[in-house]
Amino acid sequence: MANEKIKEWLQKVNEGIKDAVTLDVTTLTGDDLKGVITFDETTLRFSITKDSIQKATLLAHTHIEIDQDTLLFIKSPLSESEKGILDVHNAAAKAAIEARHAFVKMIAEIVT
User: Fold this and answer.
1) How many domains are there within the chain?
2) pLDDT over threshold 70, residue 45
3) Which of 39, 43, 87, 102 has its CA 20 to 30 A from that of 109?
4) Which of 6, 112, 26, 111 has the alpha carbon at shortest distance from 74?
5) Which residue has the higher pLDDT, 38 or 109?
6) Which residue range forms the structural domain that includes residue 21?
7) Residue 59 neighbours by CB distance under 10 Å
8) How far, rounded to the nearest angstrom, does the alpha carbon of residue 33 sit from its chain's CA centroid?
9) Burial class of residue 58 in the structure, from the number of CB atoms within 10 Å of its CB (0-12 exposed, 13-18 middle, 19+ buried)
């Protein structure tokens, strides 16, 4: 029983490490995002297809690699309301970066 719990914990840590390698924050806007954003029990997914692209607008996307190489997309021009949404996107990216740093620090403390 204890070995199984340790294996489960190590598997979760391994998944977290894989997830910590890159960070993606995507902000979509639109009146009807049905078919663009889907939910299941554990995951939020979005899929932009030819059919769904008419329903959603990609407002911003931030992609950060483990070595901090960054790709940033921001729609241009932005309306005043979209500028507020971009502030939320930036706050989400900052929170995700901080969470990743905390996770890496926790792993480093366990290993050392």
Assistant:
1) 1
2) no
3) 43
4) 26
5) 109
6) 14-111
7) 19
8) 18
9) middle
